[in-house]
Amino acid sequence: MILGLTGGYCSGKSSIASLLRAAGWAIVDVDALGHAALERSASAVAGLLGPGVIRPDGSPDRRAIGTLVFGNADLLARYEAIIHPAMNALVAEAVATASREAKGRVCVDAALLYRLPVANSCDAIIEVRSPLLARILRGKSRDGIGTRAILARIARQKPLWIAGQTHAEKVTVVRNCGSKERLHRKMQSLMKLLEPPLGLN
Fold it and tell me: What is the C-alpha to C-alpha distance for residues 80 and 7, in angstroms, rounded to an integer?
């Protein structure tokens, strides 16, 4: 079973991924693979955005890249046209490897899941949601940024949930609005429904 896992900024996606990992699921971390794709594509990115996005040691400066592309839709699209093909290839490879090693219990953890080809391969998708106030508090604690910046990040993700409507028939929403123990119980129940032999312990 290939299980997609997605959710908005600071909604609790990582908490669910941790529960699944502890239960023996292989987690394909698309964010980490995106970093690897950026490393591989650093020269092409520098050609698009300028040499200032490369650190003296040759590694890409993700903060500088984000500053340039996230406020410019056209530039972002051109940047993603460089990064996404490399990332998609890494994701496909990782899913194939994980499927062999984890007896088919693979979770693809991706904030951008609905925009990636791997979403079509998912047998089921979990979309985690959380109250706005909780997300703001988590963002301030985790990332040390202000409310305005958090709301801007949340707003930028809105097109993802519109794109997700094309996968509505296999999406289950999990609301993360309580303790970790409560979330664990919700996931236990959900996994029994989705795939009884491969549930959450």
Answer: 20
Average model confidence (pLDDT) across the chain: 90
Looking at the chain, which runs of residues are DSSP E strands? 2-7, 26-29, 106-109, 124-129, 171-175
pTM of the model: 0.86
* Nearest to 31, CA basis, from 126, 111, 118, 115: 111
- Domain co-membership, 72 together with 162: no
CB atoms closer than 10 angstroms to residue 111: 18
Would you state the structure tokens that stand for residue 129, as one six-digit string? 């949601």
Q: Which residues pair with 124 in a beta bridge?
A: 3
Question: Does 32 map to a domain?
Answer: yes
Give residue-wise pLDDT tens across range 127-142: 999 999 999 999 999 9
In this structure, the answer to whether residues 40 and 85 fall within a common structural domain is yes
The contacts of residue 7 (CB under 8 Å, 6+ apart) are 13, 16, 111, 127, 128, 129, 130
Residue 180 resides in a domain:
yes
Decide if 201 is inside a domain.
Answer: no
Among 49, 81, 101, the domain-final residue is: 101
